[in-house]
Amino acid sequence: MLEFKLQLRLWIENQSGQIIFGPGRVLLLRKVKELGSLNKAAKSLGMSYRAAWGKLKASEKALGKPLLVTNSTRGASLTPFAEQLISLYDDLTAHVQTYANQHLKSFNLEEILEQNDQN
User: Are 4 and 104 in contact (CB under 8 A)?
Assistant: First the structure.
């Protein structure tokens, strides 16, 4: 008996299709929290500081709230809003992942594969 599992990547877009928030932004923000610096976070992810800064600024503009608090001597930290947004995103992703995998069984993929093996 074969076991299948769906893997999903979710992100939030605006009406123009511009990514506002998703797994890349979450990873970047988590790295900022871990390393205390946007520059260090970007480097650890193989990104330029400018690219990382641009992505977060685009998200902040679309969301209307800051995601980072920066201080020239202390680096950067996440705002309470960013922490909450990451938590909500994680919850949403977990719910959608669970729902999708529960419903994958209703598509009878194993049965379809077996039928095609017989042909």
Answer: yes
78-86 long-range contacts (CB < 8 A, ≥24 apart) are 78/29, 78/32, 78/33, 82/29, 85/21, 86/26, 86/29, 86/30
Q: Is residue 89 part of a domain?
A: yes
Instruction: Output 105 or 54, whichever has higher pLDDT.
Output: 54
Q: Is 12 among the domain residues? A: no
Q: What DSSP designation does 115 have?
A: H
**pTM of the predicted structure, to 2 decimals:** 0.82
Host domain of residue 39: 17-118
Give how many domains the chain has, as a whole number: 1
3-state secondary structure of 21: strand
